[in-house]
Amino acid sequence: MKKPARGLPPPSASGHGRTPAASIWNAVSSASAAALQNTLMRIPDKVCAVALAALPREKRMMLYSRIAGPKAARIEEEIALESRRRTSAFVRARIIRSFLSYFGQARKVPGRIWIRPRRDSQ
Hints:
By secondary structure, the protein is mainly alpha-helical. It has a domain at 20-102. The chain contains six helices and no strands. It has helices spanning 20-29, 33-42, 45-52, 57-64, 69-82, 89-102. The termini are far apart. Residues 11-17 have low confidence and may be disordered.
């Protein structure tokens, strides 16, 4: 069994959460500190942004303390940009599944996911 990252609250006792936020928190909090840092640094910023946006700000800040400052800043910038994108629930679910697959919590997502920019109303 993996040792939880130091300083992060333990994952829920029920195992996998039913909500995306619970599943994401379960995945990141059950990883060791080194594995968490290595994995988050390897995941693309857009994928991290979609997944971590589901978490409360306090939990995101705990995770950001584990990774490089520039990476955390890019993720926060992508979270802000995500609010202007036309990302469907289906695409968002695939992105979250892709994020969870890096932690071994979901099957790998085949193919690439394209995130469409929102059209401004004129």
